[in-house]
Amino acid sequence: MRIITHNMLKCHVKNCTDPNKQFPLRFKDVQLEQVEAERNDEFLVRMLPRLDWPALLKTSKELGMGLPESIPENPGEDEEFLQAVHTFIMETHVKEGSMVCDGCAHEYKISNGIPNMLLAEHEI
Fold this sequence. Notes:
Blueprint: H1 3-6, E1 26-34, H2 41-47, H3 53-62, H4 79-91, E2 92-100, E3 107-111, E4 114-115
GO biological process, one term: tRNA methylation
GO molecular function: protein heterodimerization activity
Pfam families: Trm112p (PF03966)
């Protein structure tokens, strides 16, 4: 699972105690892998408004990877910024582990790079 996917996932447990803590899901015991991918600057610039930057920044710190604190005024012209974003959201893959909701502590397993977001009947 690429980090870009993680930035769009949130907890959907019906009795989750705090909706403000349903996103971003916190990684737990994850195994990361760097998979080289061709950089597409146009795609990155178009995706920036769709990404939750504070959540992405929190995740990058959690995983010990660096991202700039803020998006520059002209991100398409900032080579260093584009490379950092590309490396983090497109080349960083979570192979194994889990994601945990800080609102209800529900754990979503990740196996072979695929997050299991299915809920049990009583959680829907």
